């Protein structure tokens, strides 16, 4: 084993894998320190990628050269596009994956990367000299040297599983956790808190009666995440929808006093938007039924994931309640559900680059920052890998702002607001979401990927041609005009015009591109499938042009605040006239711009005005450096 690397990534989950692959492609020697090389990017919970809000992150990861989207497309069993009845800003792709195939694909990509070495060991201690990370000691005492470290520990950092009154030291079912690394972080002064998440029991598919369940088929053609992917060759596997019953509610309600959440055994905060079944019963007593989605774990297994039934009740109560659900009256478990507590570091302790403030060269990514979800973790891992590599090369970091990516929204939320509960991405978190759509992720971010060497020149050139083709199609739609007499079947707005351009028609509320098929020869060419993406891109841009332009003006205002940078050397405590609450939070979060300062909870416009004055004074006469302390 080579004992010196540019970057050590602690953890082989979704964050760790994206970090390692990005840094490797940027020319860095990387070690992934994990407990089992065969479980890289293993899906600990539901084997699905994407969904509302999350799919945008996956598209952005793909546009920057990451692996998650391609892996999901390759391992997909069912492909769906959600929210199509609403606007394109909230359209979302979701792919149900074969768990083993996803894991095998990632392991193969990592194994084929000559710049990455996998070290099967538990990280024990961080070695820091003069404030900079220089090595990691394994729990066995072996030293591995480095220039940067990315901690992507998931639920394994201080992991503790709860099933009823039973406690098991583990980061995942039947897998040991890491404890010494938390101790090392505390030694360096990091604040550490506790969060929790949970997972449902797994079911034997042969024990389920699907006849009374609602079938949920996939979409054809399959919506894909990656521009590199092609349509799947195998038929899609359906999922099923079922419901809890009054009996389910009665059993769980009667046994709440046996749930770790209600006995005081488990006091850490869980994800608000993905509650356990017992929490649903408790919080929504008026609701008689809850949806349960029956989703396959893989094509080569009969194991089923009952999405919506996360629980930490005793196993016998789990089974009794599960057997009251429609179609699951005779179900059998392959393993019980459980809750898992783990350590995290509140994210005010990191910079927008994901580098920690306390130790130079040390980066955090994923659940250690308080997030939940594969997609959120992967986005952070990618950014941590990129920025660690850039720092080693002495180059400027990549910081995506809120106006250009969901990844930027997520990291800014973490850094300016920290979190006391697991953070999950939603489209509602993005002020500029009409500008942050799935369809334009490459327009927004592929240039960064090419500049960093994560996107090949040929791929970038191919996309540039797509952009040109989109603009040409938009121009064509503005030019082609049709007499009103040809439009009798369309729901036109009242107008005195004698003719309309195709673009005019698309701007009307109930007219879609597909409605123009009989009027537009372009839609009836020899190979319409090759134009599908161009048509969708052009339609969105024309239909929402006014709203997009309005949002661009808002983004321009936002960027003016963001460009008002706060120097690293600025001493917030020297700024007189700030309220005590404002000063406390500014010192804690250390914002890098006035815009970021304004997003900190409790900071008022008056505080920002006072802060702007002191920043201006600081620039005009920066404080003299303090003399170095004398040593004896």
Structural write-up:
With 632 residues, the protein is of the alpha+beta class. The chain folds into 4 domains: 7-198 and 342-451, FAD/NAD(P)-binding domain; 202-338, Beta Barrel (Elongation Factor Tu (Ef-tu), domain 3); 457-548, Orthogonal Bundle (Arc Repressor Mutant, subunit A); 564-620, GidA associated domain, C-terminal subdomain (DNA polymerase, domain 1, Orthogonal Bundle), CATH 1.10.150. Helices cover 33% and strands 17% of the residues. A hairpin with a 2-residue loop joins strand 7 (123-129) and strand 8 (132-138). It is globular and about 80 Å long.
Please state the structural category. alpha+beta
What's the CATH architecture name of the largest domain? 3-Layer(bba) Sandwich
Secondary structure: number of strands? 23
State the helix count. 19
- How large a portion of the residues is in β-strands, by DSSP E? 15-25%
CATH topology of the largest domain: FAD/NAD(P)-binding domain
Integer-rounded radius of gyration: 26 Å
Question: What about the largest sheet?
Answer: 6 strands, antiparallel
What is the CATH homology-level superfamily of the largest domain? FAD/NAD(P)-binding domain
